[in-house]
Design a protein that fits this description.
The chain is of the alpha/beta class. It contains 11 helices and 15 strands.
Length: 308
């Protein structure tokens, strides 16, 4: 069995290759059972474990295990750890162990950018990023593969993380600065991307300008929320998979109050990739993409690492 280190996994997944690989997988026959979700922590140290399998006709199967620990920020640790094993689908033989953290963070950012390629304005150049962690720090780089992003404002609950990412982006030639006023930064942006572990809304619909795109990728449990109801219900809503309607607090809250009608969801990321639903229709339409992640994306990324 081949074991791929963090560095090897990262090197095999540049966004220029990963984003097209995701789109190709969404257009293929891939079986993705429902994920297992288990609360295995305590009140003092909450821990959620996800088990996510997928397989395709290409002959590979993968299983990812993810541990989410919201309190890790207080311990100077990432909030998410994962492992990924790839198998020969015909024999069940394990063929590769791929760094799960790199798989998860890079495919999440890539899927976000893939959705934005259909839903954001083609001239979108201003990005406000909420969340400067492992996933959030990749968002500007992924988006620049599909859109002309020129300026980035960064906010994180940890000011040190904010300054670290701002410095890195500027060093890499992307004009970046820390958010001073969250409402102003959201209203300034063509795209607002949220990659936090928040349990309370960090962005409000009243802040968002017409024509903007809101990307919500941090809330993947019923207890988590990144946007208020106004941000969701007064926009054109797209989701990554149907599971988003059952997993994310961003959607479950407005569904529970009746503010959101599930029939108003326009399509999934698969629908977008296959041309089976509409994309952005005007320069003033406000769009929302809500993602909880899918094992299809993990399999696409791991296959890319293994097959080269």
């Amino acid at each position: 069995m081949k074991i791929y280190s963090c560095d090897e996994t990262r090197a095999a997944l540049p966004f220029s290759r990963l984003i097209p690989a995701l789109e190709k997988m969404f257009n293929s026959d891939c079986c993705v059972p429902r994920r297992h979700v288990h609360a295995v922590g305590t009140d003092e140290n909450p821990l959620t474990t996800l088990i996510m399998p997928a397989w395709s006709d290409a002959g590979l199967m993968g299983i990812k295990t993810v541990n989410i620990a919201p309190n890790n920020a207080k311990k100077a640790l990432p909030g998410l750890f994962s492992t990924y094993t790839l198998y020969n689908r015909n024999t069940g033989e394990p063929v590769a162990q791929v760094d799960g953290n790199e798989i998860t963070s890079r495919r999440t950012a890539a899927a976000s950018a893939l959705a934005a390629s259909f839903l954001a304005r083609r001239d979108a150049s201003r990005l406000t990023l909420l969340g400067a962690g492992r996933v959030g720090s990749l968002i500007p780089y992924a988006y620049r593969e599909v859109l002309p992003i020129e300026e980035v404002q960064v906010w994180d609950i940890n000011p040190v993380a904010t300054q670290r990412l701002v410095a890195q982006l500027n060093q890499d030639g992307i004009a970046a600065r820390a958010v001073v006023d969250l409402a102003q930064a959201a209203g300034w942006a063509d795209i607002v991307s949220c990659a936090t572990l928040s349990t309370e809304p960090v962005v409000k619909g009243a802040w968002l300008k017409p024509g903007s795109h809101l990307d919500l990728i941090g809330s993947f449990t019923p207890e988590m929320r990144e946007a208020d109801e106004d941000a969701i219900v007064n926009a054109s809503l797209f989701i990554d998979t149907p599971e988003a309607m059952e997993k994310s607090g961003d959607l479950l809250k407005p569904l529970s109050t009746g503010a959101l009608n599930p029939r108003l969801v326009i399509g999934t990321l698969e629908d977008l990739c296959r041309g089976q639903c509409r994309v952005r229709q005007s320069e003033t339409e406000r769009t929302v993409f809500k993602a909880v992640g899918t094992a299809l994306e993990d399999l696409a990324a791991a296959s890319l690492v293994y097959q080269g």
